[in-house]
Amino acid sequence: MKLGILFSGGKDSMYACYLAKKESYNVCCLITIISKNKESWMFHIPSIERVREQAKVMHLPLIIIKTKGQKEEELRDLEKAIRKAVEKFEIEGIVTGAVESVYQTTRIQKICNKLKIECFNPLWQKNPEEYWDELLQNGFKIIITGVFADGLSKEWLGKFIDRENLDKLKEMSNKYKIHLSFEGGEAETFVLNCPLFARKLSIVDFKDNGSRNSWIREIEVK
Amino acid sequence: MKKFEKFKMNRREEIKMKKNILLINICKEKLHFFEFVKPIKDILTKNKIKYFARDYKKLKKKDLLEASKVIICGTSLYDNEFFRNIDNFAWIKNYKKPILGICGGMQIIGMIFREKLKRKTKESNSFLKKKTEIGFYKEKFKKEFLGLEGEEKVYHLHNYYIDFLKLKEFEVFSGNKATQAVKHKKKEIYGVLFHPEVRNKDLIQKFISISTPELEKELSIVPEKR
Fold first, then answer.
1. Nearest Cβ partner for A125 among B42, B76, B78
2. Is B11's pLDDT higher than 50?
């Protein structure tokens, strides 16, 4: 079956893509929505433009659609992007990295149902600790590119999630009720290397924006 | 004496551990396993309940014999190959152990019992009805159903439902039009159209804790530790 990945460059969509490939599905393209709305509930924001470099090292075509990020309009734009993938690559299904968000998954399911294509959510309801273990065991190199919760300070920006930092995250997760998979939007991530990449990506520059407990890191990679 | 008491307690635990839940995967697509079977496996693992999973096409008589209860897991909106292979579920009619059908699993239960109905009344196509519901919905439970009662928020993901009101063997607990929760009047066969693994995980635990006559009989032989 030919599939398109709803792709943000973060750990969830990347790992969902990895599982699809592992199960021998034909991943034909990545689909990214770039939202101008920094408060979007639907789409990933930090360093979203860097999906271009990720797509290159994954040797996969990338469909990018830009949206103003207004509530109903952003869904029309998402539908437009999926429709484009259906027409161009004849995909028969979409893969998402949804873990807990009923808000996101419901909207994507409705679009797929309308277009009569499959919707796969291989991380759905996944236990966060098991999930992180799998990511680390499979060599995913993940950094934090956004923090939006009490307990996650600016110092977390750019940090790799290794075993040591994962333990710190677990502590904070208990203390501040942070969802360890960041499903409550507590943080955003970016994948610099994983088994899907032909070569690893390196950060060449970055810029931090934000205040108090809400920070974003925009990175440049090569 | 102490040693003997310990033995008795372990024996009870051992019998209780005979709970071995069979999870039936009805998804044709391999990738759907993670979305519709794995979350239920995780609930059982968390509760230290033994389980084993089987693809509905590879199900053997031995599996049904070994299981203490059966959960027929759901599937996606378009992964409906099981409709064409409904004969693979003919065993449901005569199975004596508890069964819980989730979404597609509930539709299967209805289809199997419809076969009986069809033979008796020539009831036909109006049985499987189209109705798309995706996301959270509030459903009213007329009376307690596996721990759910009154108004409950449930997660839906389906394009069809079975009109269980036409099946006299079943009691409808929720859903006047699109049947949401049913139980066989004489057997421990349950069906839910919604996905309890998303926000009503306790329902699965409740189903697991249903006592069967076989288990009760075995437990009655071994006295409880006082």
1. B42
2. yes
